[in-house]
Amino acid sequence: MPNLNKGASFTIEERNELKLRGLVPAGDPISLDTKVEVAITSLRSKSSPLEQFIYLSTIQDADETLYYAILIKYTAEVMPIVYTPTVGEACQKWSTIYRHTPRGLYLSINDIGQVEEVMDNYPLTDIKVVVVTDGERILGLGDLGVNGMGIPVGKL
Questions:
Q1: Is the C-alpha dihedral spanning 141, 147, 150, 153 positive or negative?
Q2: Which one of 53, 57, 74, 78 is least enclosed by Cβ atoms within 10 Å?
């Protein structure tokens, strides 16, 4: 779960308790500040805003604590990447950059009468915020359908 993962920041005791030895790199835990600086350096090396969006999305899917720490420390730099204007391009290309991670719930006309069952399929249970879109008129780009998922995910 990305909201619980700390990657190489788990202490030795946590690694033993959670049976993570061998599943994360050995050595002393890496501080969140260090991970933020490594990530921002890597982010800056990406060749386009879309590549930066994909990189940050990958971090969000793996380690939410790191993702939000980057957003907090480098807000002005990363907001145009995780939201407008880059999220518009990401939505247009969503079907080619989608990584099959549970960052949204897709409901379609085929789910009429089965919405509760579909919602029960979502892997998380401690949900505090829901953002809904019909995918229509996303950022003035027209009806993007399921490709508009980047907008509600970006709002979170």
A1: positive
A2: 74
